[in-house]
């Protein structure tokens, strides 16, 4: 990351390319793009040090619309390509734009390994729970029973929980936001930009053509307060239109309690700690929405500081050079058990 004092003061227009944005009118991708363009000037990073990598899918057009360096890769391989970029150019800020089909289906293996390695990448998951580009098939995050063109009688698959997957794989920054909550989404992007390690943000993104209203209960004014829990560092877990609901831990079992009944007060509630070294609580939070009566959490579930793969890679090479000197490729190729083939024509 560059010294902020050396960076030209940018505006959102500096990160907007000349390409016509080609998504369906009303798609949630527009909001994610807008928030990234508005947030990027605040990252303290020179524009020429940004790189966006994508795979295949609607979200994968993202690099075209950011006026930065970028690469449109192949299906599911975005994080593998991004790893190569980061390892070879650790000075760059490398971002990945990917969808639920791209990252969690054919790209699932790459995703879990980039998390466990803690490569210093920023991964934005556009999760609309559907295959949009290929016209409406069910995806790895589609709910069980989902009727689509490829599951006309309802999906029999249990869906992936991306946050739980990221926690289990060891990502060091795990967050969720909503396409229709621009201020919150901008804040998550800024926090991810400053994190050293694999930063993963799941964004619930509406596909108004093939899965319209999938997250309506979380975004509409009349229902959002009772169904969304905003995670804030060091603050108790309170939600509800009148802030009259909360979550407490009974051992390791979370419970929703009503603060207006007088049995429990705000002092009895679970206080969120995103820096908790034990991932157990982050995993519990990641599964809130799967429990009846529980809100869907947004915000940072977990943040951990530890060495990154790319930094360790270069440190190891530097240490070897100090003890063994610079490598000699010819010497390497002509050392050890060898034989020579003579051409005696």
Q: Overview of this structure, please?
A:
With 345 residues, the chain is of the alpha/beta class. It has a domain at 4-219 and 305-309: 3-Layer(aba) Sandwich (Rossmann fold). The chain contains twelve helices and eleven strands. The strands form two sheets. Strands 2-1-3-4-6-5-11-7 form an eight-stranded mixed sheet, sandwiched between helices. The longest helix is centred in the C-terminal third of the chain and has 16 residues, at 309-324.
In short:
The protein is built from twelve helices and eleven strands. It has helices at residues 29-39, 62-65, 78-88, 100-106, 108-117, 162-169, 182-194, 216-219, 221-227, 280-286, 309-324, 329-333; strands at residues 50-54, 69-72, 93-99, 121-127, 173-178, 199-204, 228-230, 238-239, 245-250, 253-258, 296-303. 38% of the residues are buried.
């Amino acid at each position: 990351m560059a010294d902020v004092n050396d960076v030209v003061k940018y505006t959102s227009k500096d990160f907007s390319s000349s390409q016509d944005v080609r998504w369906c009118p009303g798609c949630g991708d527009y909001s994610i793009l807008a928030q990234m363009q508005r947030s990027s000037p605040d990252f303290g990073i020179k524009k020429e040090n940004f790189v966006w990598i994508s795979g295949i899918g609607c979200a994968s057009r993202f690099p075209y619309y950011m006026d930065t360096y970028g690469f449109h890769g192949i299906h599911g391989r975005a994080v593998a390509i991004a790893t190569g970029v980061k390892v070879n150019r650790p000075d760059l800020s490398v971002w990945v734009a990917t969808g639920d089909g791209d990252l969690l289906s054919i790209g699932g293996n790459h995703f879990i390994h980039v998390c466990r390695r803690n490569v210093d990448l920023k991964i934005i998951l556009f999760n609309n729970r559907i295959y949009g580009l290929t016209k409406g098939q069910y995806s790895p995050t589609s709910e069980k029973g989902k009727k689509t063109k490829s599951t006309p009688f309802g999906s029999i698959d249990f869906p992936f929980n991306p946050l739980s997957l990221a926690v289990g794989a060891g990502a060091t920054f795990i967050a969720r936001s909503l396409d229709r909550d621009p201020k919150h989404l901008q804040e998550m992007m800024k926090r991810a930009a400053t994190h050293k390690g694999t930063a993963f943000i799941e964004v619930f993104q509406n596909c108004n053509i093939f899965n319209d209203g999938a997250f309506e209960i979380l975004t509409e004014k009349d229902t959002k307060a009772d169904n969304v829990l905003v995670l804030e560092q060091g603050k108790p877990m309170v939600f509800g239109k009148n802030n009259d609901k909360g979550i407490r831990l009974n051992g390791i079992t979370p419970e929703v309690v009503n603060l207006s009944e007088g049995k429990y007060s705000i002092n009895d509630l679970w206080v969120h700690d995103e820096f908790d070294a034990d991932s157990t609580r982050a995993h519990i939070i990641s599964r809130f929405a799967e429990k009846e009566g529980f809100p869907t959490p947004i915000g940072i579930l977990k943040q951990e500081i530890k060495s990154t793969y790319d930094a360790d890679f270069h440190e190891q090479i530097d240490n070897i050079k100090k003890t063994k000197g610079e490598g000699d490729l010819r010497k390497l190729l002509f050392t050890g058990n060898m034989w020579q083939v003579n051409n005696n024509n």
